[in-house]
Amino acid sequence: MDMHPDLEQVLFSRERIAARVVELGRQISDDYRNGNLLLVGVLKGAVVFLADLMRAITIPHRFDFIRASSYGKGTASSGYVMLSGQIEHHLADYDVLIVEGIVDTGRTIEALTREFTRSGARSLEVCSFLMKKRPRAVPVVCRYLGYEVPDRFVVGYGLDYDERYRHLDCVGILRREVYEL
Ligand code: PRP
Questions:
Q1: β-strands 95-103, 171-174: how paired?
Q2: What is the domain extent for residue 38?
Q3: Residue 27: which CATH number?
Q4: What is the pTM of this model?
Q5: How far apart, in whole angstroms, are the C-alpha atoms of residue 4 and residue 102?
Q6: Per-residue confidence at 73, pLDDT binned at 50, 70, 90?
Q7: Which pLDDT band, with edges at 50, 70 and 90, does 148 fall under?
Q8: CB of 45 sitting under 6 A from ligand 1
């Protein structure tokens, strides 16, 4: 497929993404074979990754969602993470794996960790498809990581700019002209 004209560069093709997700699924299935796994997808960015990851996990597991948002229409974090939505599962019964599309400042993961620790999750780890290579005020430990990416604005595979590009099957760097008018 031709590259979307708003992209400056494709970082990960559909094929590379698919292969990495299979590896992550295998690793998670192995590590949690004696656990009670609950995937908690972080809406909306993680929705595509979660849908692929759950099908790459070969052990029985459940999934749930939480909504976290901090970027609004811009390309930089507002610094304030708004959590919403109701987790339907009783977290104390589960080994919770937060499934995230991308870790940037780390504030979303920090807020979720605080929230799920307070709810008494039996264990808590993070699986993020992408993580920006940048200094972080809040250190984030991702037990499972798809890829590191440069500190640029990336879209596709669930990630958006102003709600656009989430449907792209690759991950790419958005051209600056698109958001710097
Ligand atoms: C994005 C992304 C992550 C978060 C990462 O969400 O999907 O959830 O930011 O950034 P952080 O590490 O700096 O907290 P966004 O607020 O854009 O909402 P969305 O997932 O609905 O696009």
A1: unpaired
A2: 15-151
A3: 3.40.50.2020
A4: 0.95
A5: 21
A6: low
A7: very high
A8: yes
User: Does the residue 163 lie in any domain?
Assistant: no
* Best mutation site among 80, 98, 104 for ligand 1 pocket (most ligand atoms within 8 Å of CB): 104
Residue at 178 is within a domain: no
Asked if 111 contacts 126 with a C-beta cutoff of 8 angstroms, the reply is: no
Query: E strands of 71-155, at which residues?
Result: 82-84, 95-103, 123-132, 144-149, 154-155
Answer whether 101 contacts ligand 1 (Cβ < 6 A). Answer: yes
Place of tokens 């708003």: 6
Residue closest via CA to ligand 1's atom 18 equals 69
What is the rounded CA–CA span in Å between residue 10 and residue 78? 26
User: Distance between CA atoms of 68 and 107, rounded to whole angstroms?
Assistant: 10
Query: Is 162 domain-assigned?
Result: no
